[in-house]
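Appendix B. One record, verbatim.
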Amino acid sequence: MKFSILVPIYNVGDYLNEMLSSIDAQDFTDYELVLVDDGSTDECPEICDRYCETHSFARVIHKPNGGLISARRAGIAEAQGEYVLFVDADDCLKPDALESINDVIEKNGSDVVIYNADIYDGTSRQVFFEHELPEGPVADKRVIYDKLFLSYSMNSMCLKTMKRTLLDADRDYTGFYDCAVAEDLLQSVPVYIAARNIYYLDKPLYDYRVTTGMTHKCNPMYYWSNRKINLDIRERLKNEGIEDLDKKAAFHILIAAYAGTTQMKYADTFDSAQLEKIRSDSEFKSAWDKVWDSSYSAYFSKKQKLILKMLHDGNYSLIKLLLKIRGGK
């Protein structure tokens, strides 16, 4: 079997049938579908059961809720295909996705294929990332590592297909089950380290829905989840010959601090104590010293620099005012 499509599912009953229809629409048919119902309390379990009753290539795992990492690892443990790809239950694959990926693999012997997505709001689409790399084999993986820290365009587990043997299935990830963000980065790094032939396909093969998920929810653990994962991948990448690894990892910490701060606009009440914990954190302080006056500060947008400077200086009332006035991202 060529592909295992793994789908973690939690309370997305309004979108699950549309995702399943996108699987049915695939031009390439040598695949299995593994649905992982992560303790859904809506109609998702019933939808999964009905689908598997009529589709012999599909099976469902019903498990207690454990979060996205837990669900994905459960799917990996069950996968039997030579290659694995992930689809979030509220997103969709393009009809030619599997065929396009298989063409690349057959022609290039690739063990990882990275591709693009369209951002989909339910009616219209626009390209997620514009020409992140030249299409073709990636000559130097360090280019990808830089993007993991500086642009995030290579992070998503849903925008790559990889050999199942690269997925470190035996590693114990339970210590990260509480990390609701940055889990794509956590699980992508071992894949990239183990890969020997990576191909970048500059084509949208995936519809990434932006009307659901955590986009407009305040997650008080946003910074701390990123911090925990940052420490892990920094250790894993230390022997990969990455120039300025500490500074690039520090940049990632500051971006996490910025995002954790701006999420306050979605909170019921503005919690300055939460921001003070970030400001006082040793990793934030160290990252500030490494990056703020370095060449990497040029990667910050004007708004990112403004918010981070106010966070560093403890100007929480100004942050509150700016978020209230500006809104948006």
